[in-house]
Amino acid sequence: MAFTEYQSGxxxxxxxxxxxxxxxxxGFLVVGLVGGGLAVRxxxxxxxxxxxxxxxxxxxxxxxxxxxxxxxAVVLFVAQALSVRDGRTLFHVGxxxxxxxxxxxxxxxxxxxxxxSSSFLFVLVTDPDRLANAMIRFGVPYRYGFVFILALRFxxxxxxxxxxxxxxxxxxxxxxxxxxxxxxxxxxxxxxxxVLVSGLVRVDSIAMSMKGRCFGLHRTRSQLEKIRLGWxxxxxxxxxxxWVTMSVLSRRYGWF
Length: 256
Description:
The chain is mostly helical.
């Protein structure tokens, strides 16, 4: 499974700050978790891909990361369609397929796909350093902001370490494909343990470096870049408010 990474740019959501991107993400999450209509969720999903198209010059990593997500969404749709028996029967394929089953499957698949794709879009357009600085600027203690930055930066680190370990395994003729239950122990020994040890060594180095620089000695810290809200952030907040309003109205009045 490929992973989406932050891409710097000057288009679309890159024109705004991290708080604007966070507001849009919250709006899409509300649609995915609260919105009651298929049309609202489908429109929000189209909006996600539209924002990704205007915000990124390299869309292939974004779409590639969503291949597994799309496959799992299809599995959720089929599972719901086969398990829900309420409603009018449309046809039989060993079991009865009802209109409510298809609706429930579409709701579940769209909800899952919208939440994951909007989260990937947020990662694609949001600089972790700027996001942490913005959180610190608006009241989050800088220690927690630094933990947030470390958590985001350890994701590509573990991915690179896993790639290195697998290349070393291939050079030594070690195969760790899991086909039997006994292969799980072999995979843990030759893959999980080396990656975990590399991560712990990296964490220990960072901790020693932070201790040597007296990190956390003062209650506040200075910032190199001042985070200010611009017109692009205002439009992002309005877009998020629009999706939240449509989601609430759709659930309350049964629209779409």
